[in-house]
């Protein structure tokens, strides 16, 4: 398999490329580049190699449906293509189109979401979501005066990236440890988080701890907003598939020698926030309730829906 596929999968697995939007764009771009540089000219061989490349990319991280949608968008016309050249061009074209529409969706979400923010608001964000950060920085760019609490997001500490991103954009940001969320929530007006996957029933799968942030927001009556491109809606959940929650190496949370014999360590890196804790899902199509996800998914899938059964 060509290096671009293996290298991209490794970068995603090792979290050098991370965040649901970025990994989806990296997957689609890698397939487009692989197709562009493809050495042979045999259609069947190309189809088999594209399927193999897709599987390698999809195995790199299991939770974000965005990666699955990015890979499937890039390869969607390979099976119906009538010639090798047509199949190859479709991957180059569809991969680039996915990247472009994904970037545009983040910009649109920023514009729509920024309108939810009022001058003087205190906000909270969890982990490092480009969609959520886009909303906050757009509001600040429009001249709104906001304060942001950003969680550390153990164990990978993506919150450090968030405070860098926000402070570079001139945002007044305060870092807190994850266990300070409930203490601080009484001061917070609105929470903005990203999404790895949204199920057909409107539940959110995002960085571990998101559901605790949502619970604390509900208790304190702070508005809980999810910033999500619609390609993070999971068509597979329509037909009963569950979202796999990635578990990562225990070395991410405990050092060698710290472990008493016989003790176990559990390191799930995403969790599920039930729809009832979500006030708004801010997408490139507009703001919707969790209950609207099913309808949007069905409309977007159109005739292709039976393929997901
Ligand atoms: C990142 C994370 C982000 C979502 C959305 O987890 O949970 O909130 O992926 O990000 P990890 P974006 O660091 O483990 O990938 O809005 O950038 O797509």
Automatic annotation (TrEMBL):
Keyword Protein transport part of the UniProt annotation: no
Recorded family membership: Belongs to the eIF-2B alpha/beta/delta subunits family. R15P isomerase subfamily.
GO molecular function term, any single one: ribose 1,5-bisphosphate isomerase activity
Residues binding substrate: 18-21, 61, 206-207, 232
Originating species: Methanomethylophilus alvi (strain Mx1201)
InterPro entries listed in its UniProt record: IF-2B-related, IF_2B-like_C, Initiation_fac_2B_a/b/d, M1Pi_N, NagB/RpiA_transferase-like, R15Pi
Pfam families in alphabetical order: IF-2B (PF01008)
Active site (UniProt): 127, 196
Remaining remarks: Reaction proceeds via a cis-phosphoenolate intermediate.
Top class in the EC scheme: isomerase
Coiled-coil segments: none
EC identifiers of the protein: 5.3.1.29
Biological function: Catalyzes the isomerization of ribose 1,5-bisphosphate (R15P) to ribulose 1,5-bisphosphate (RuBP), the CO(2) acceptor and substrate for RubisCO. Functions in an archaeal AMP degradation pathway, together with AMP phosphorylase and RubisCO.
Protein name: Ribose 1,5-bisphosphate isomerase
Keyword vocabulary terms for this entry: Carbohydrate metabolism, Isomerase
Any GO BP: pentose catabolic process
Reactions accelerated catalytically: alpha-D-ribose 1,5-bisphosphate = D-ribulose 1,5-bisphosphate
């Amino acid at each position: 398999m060509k290096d671009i596929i293996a290298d991209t999968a490794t970068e995603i697995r090792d979290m050098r490329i991370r965040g649901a939007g970025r990994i989806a764009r990296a997957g689609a771009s890698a397939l487009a580049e692989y197709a562009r540089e493809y050495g042979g000219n045999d259609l069947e061989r190309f189809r088999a190699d594209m399927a193999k490349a897709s599987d390698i990319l999809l195995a790199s991280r299991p939770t974000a449906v965005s990666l699955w949608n990015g890979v499937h968008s890039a390869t969607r016309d390979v099976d119906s293509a009538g010639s090798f050249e047509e199949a190859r061009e479709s991957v180059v074209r569809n991969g680039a189109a996915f990247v472009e529409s994904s970037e545009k969706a983040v910009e649109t979400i920023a514009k729509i979401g920024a309108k939810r923010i009022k001058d003087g608001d205190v906000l909270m964000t969890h982990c490092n979501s480009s969609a959520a950060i886009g909303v906050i920085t757009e509001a600040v760019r429009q001249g709104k005066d906001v304060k942001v609490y950003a969680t550390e997001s153990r164990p990978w500490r993506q919150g450090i990236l968030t405070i860098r991103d926000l402070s570079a954009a001139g945002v007044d940001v305060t870092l807190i440890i994850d266990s300070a969320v409930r203490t601080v929530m009484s001061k917070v007006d609105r929470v903005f988080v990203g999404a790895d996957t949204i199920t057909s029933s409107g539940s959110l799968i995002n960085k571990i701890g998101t559901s605790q942030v949502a619970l604390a927001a509900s208790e304190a009556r702070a508005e809980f907003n999810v910033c999500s491109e619609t390609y993070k809606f999971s068509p597979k959940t329509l037909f009963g598939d569950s979202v796999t929650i990635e578990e990562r190496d225990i070395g991410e949370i405990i050092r060698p020698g710290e472990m008493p014999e016989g003790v176990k360590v559990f390191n799930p890196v995403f969790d599920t926030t039930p729809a009832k804790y979500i006030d708004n899902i801010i997408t490139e199509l507009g703001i919707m309730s969790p209950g609207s996800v099913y309808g949007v998914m069905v409309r977007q899938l159109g005739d292709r829906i039976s393929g997901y059964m």
